Each structure stands twice: as structure tokens, then as C-alpha cells.
Automatic annotation (TrEMBL):
Residues 10-241 form the ABC transporter domain. One of its GO terms (molecular function) is ATP hydrolysis activity. Keywords: ATP-binding, Nucleotide-binding, Transport. PROSITE patterns: ABC_TRANSPORTER_1, ABC_TRANSPORTER_2. This is ABC-2 type transport system ATP-binding protein. The keyword Cell cycle does not apply.
Length: 313
């Protein structure tokens, strides 16, 4: 029997999924998430994120491959594997006419937790989610951010060792999002492994230590956040130029300079390069800069490059 204490929180090997209509959603996905990690799964719409999460949470049947949760095979020991896992879906899916306390207690009941124990646990998770004062209010009266926190509190009722959140802050404003970040950091700090799917790249960079980028059903890049960002040790700038551009652009060693349009130059340069070299080259070529701006954040640039590379290959 596998030593659960030494096993990764999630191990996926050569996972394939082909739907009945012939769509191949996963094409041999393999990844590992270590216990205690805060892990990001990034990918554009249709990349395979939801299918992967669906298979891991036993909502979607795989075509082939293996999934282990803390060393427990999802097929051979489904019930035991599912007891290790909590899922927070993207859609709000509780009864709006139930009270938060009842939502949490009833959820625990599905997992065989005795009512007395569930009531004590519900008080704990609702307090942690800053919802205890709303425990006996109708759920439909909660704000959007409170409803999201209630989804997380409900998932924590079974004290899962692995918590999976599918786009947990989709469609909420930045204040609610940052409040949820604080909640998730606290849950992770207390020992729960978290896997987060998100299209907010700032969210992944702020919260997660490791990530995988999935595109067209394949993992195109994975590893520590810092290491992957170090691969993209460049910065991009757009320069708005006064007047006409010269026929020949200046050569700036180590940097790439291109024409974006008749009055805009696109520059990529190493982060360590001094911008004064760029302005000196512009000045020597008679190029006058009216304004400049950064192209995108580093993680977004990495994401675009990885998914673009996959298309090209």
C-alpha cells in the first residue's frame, strides 16, 4: 500500500479524454502536485482545464491514464480518494433559500459526518470565512463575495487535504477577489494543498508557488513559478514616436526592436539592460519618443508565448 504521508497530493499520469463527439480534450497530461503546495493550472478557454478538474474530482470519466490523490488510486479506491478532496466549482450551486449553517451541515451529512460533529465544524469554517454572523440568514441575501466564501466554507466541511478551486474569483470585483486571496492563503498556511484554475494571471502570480500551463489538451510548461518567470527574463515596451520613423531602425545589441505601426515601436530587452542605452540609440537615429508603456506583465507574456508556441508546433 502506498505511504500516503510521502505521496504527492495529486499525481496524474498520461491522462487522455476523448468525448463521444470525437473531441480529444486531454492528450496525455502528466503532472504532480506536492502536499502543501499552492498550485496554479492555467490555460485558455477550451484548453482542457475543466476536463482535467472534472476527472480528478470524479465528475468526468477518463478515457485512459491514472489519477492518484495522496497515493490513493481514484479508480480502485474512489470513496477513500474522494474523502481527501474538496471542490469549489465556478458556478454558485447551493440552495439560495437555505441558511449557510444548514448548507454546511447538510453537505457534511452527505459524507457521513454526524450532525453534532457537523454543527461544531460548521461553526468553525463559517467563522474562518467571516460568515458566522450570517449563519442563520437566507443565503440569497448574501453579497457576491460572501456567497463565494460560503462555497469555500462548504468544501472545507470535510477537512479535505486537497482543495480544488475552479475559477473561484471569476466575475467578482477586485476587492472581493483580494479578500478571497487572503482566505485561501490562510487555508494553505494551515496545511491544505490547493490547486487553482484561473484566467487572472495576477492571481496565479500572487498566490501560487508552482504552475502548469495547459493548451490544446497538453501541458506545454510546468514547474516553479519563479523558475518559469526567469525563463522569460525580458521586458516589453511600446514607444509612441513623434513624426515619421526612419527607414532603418537602430541596432541595439541584446534587444529586439520592431515597428508596431507607423508611429509605434515595439521593444523587447533583457530586464538587466539599461534603458538609457535604448534612448541613446533612439537619439542617435533621430527618433523622438513621445511616451512609452509596458506591454504586459511577465506571467501573461509567458502564458502567451507558451500557448503560441504550442500552436506553431
Amino acid at each position: 500500500m502506498t505511504d500516503q504521508s510521502a505521496a504527492p497530493a495529486l499525481r496524474v499520469r498520461e491522462l487522455h479524454k476523448t468525448y463521444g463527439n470525437g473531441v480529444e480534450a486531454l492528450k496525455g497530461v502528466s503532472l504532480e502536485v506536492q502536499a502543501g503546495d499552492f498550485y496554479a493550472l492555467l490555460g485558455p478557454n477550451g484548453a482542457g482545464k475543466s476536463t482535467l478538474i472534472g476527472i480528478v474530482s470524479s465528475l468526468v470519466n477518463k478515457t485512459s491514464g491514472t489519477v492518484e490523490i495522496f497515493g490513493i488510486d481514484l479508480v480502485r479506491q474512489r470513496s477513500l480518494a474522494m474523502r481527501q478532496l474538496g471542490l469549489v466549482p465556478q458556478e454558485i450551486n447551493f440552495n439560495m433559500f437555505e441558511k449557510p449553517l444548514d448548507i454546511c451541515v447538510n453537505y457534511a451529512g452527505f459524507y457521513g459526518i454526524p450532525r453534532r460533529q457537523a454543527l461544531a465544524r460548521a461553526e468553525q469554517v463559517l467563522k474562518e470565512a467571516q460568515l458566522w454572523d450570517k449563519a442563520d440568514k437566507m443565503s440569497r441575501t448574501l453579497s457576491g463575495g460572501m456567497k463565494r466564501r460560503l462555497m469555500i466554507a462548504r468544501a472545507m466541511m470535510t477537512a479535505p487535504k486537497l482543495l480544488i478551486l475552479d475559477e473561484p474569483t471569476a466575475g467578482v470585483d477586485i476587492e472581493i477577489r483580494r479578500g478571497m486571496w487572503k482566505t485561501l492563503k490562510e487555508i494553505n498556511a494551515a496545511g491544505t494543498t490547493i490547486i487553482l484554475t484561473t484566467h487572472y494571471l495576477e492571481e496565479a502570480e500572487s498566490l501560487c508557488r508552482n504552475l502548469a500551463i495547459i493548451d490544446h489538451g497538453r501541458i506545454v510548461e510546468q514547474g516553479p513559478m519563479k523558475s518559469l518567470l526567469a525563463k522569460l527574463d525580458v521586458e516589453g515596451f511600446l514607444f509612441d514616436i513623434e513624426g515619421e520613423l526612419p527607414e532603418l531602425l537602430p541596432q541595439i545589441p541584446g534587444a529586439t526592436l520592431q515597428v508596431a505601426d507607423a508611429h509605434t515601436l515595439d521593444l523587447e530587452m533583457p530586464r538587466a539592460m539599461d534603458l538609457n542605452r535604448v534612448f541613446a540609440a533612439f537619439d542617435a537615429a533621430g527618433i523622438r519618443v513621445r511616451s512609452m508603456r509596458t506591454k504586459s506583465n511577465r506571467l501573461e507574456e509567458l502564458f502567451v508565448r507558451m500557448t503560441t508556441r504550442e500552436v506553431q508546433e
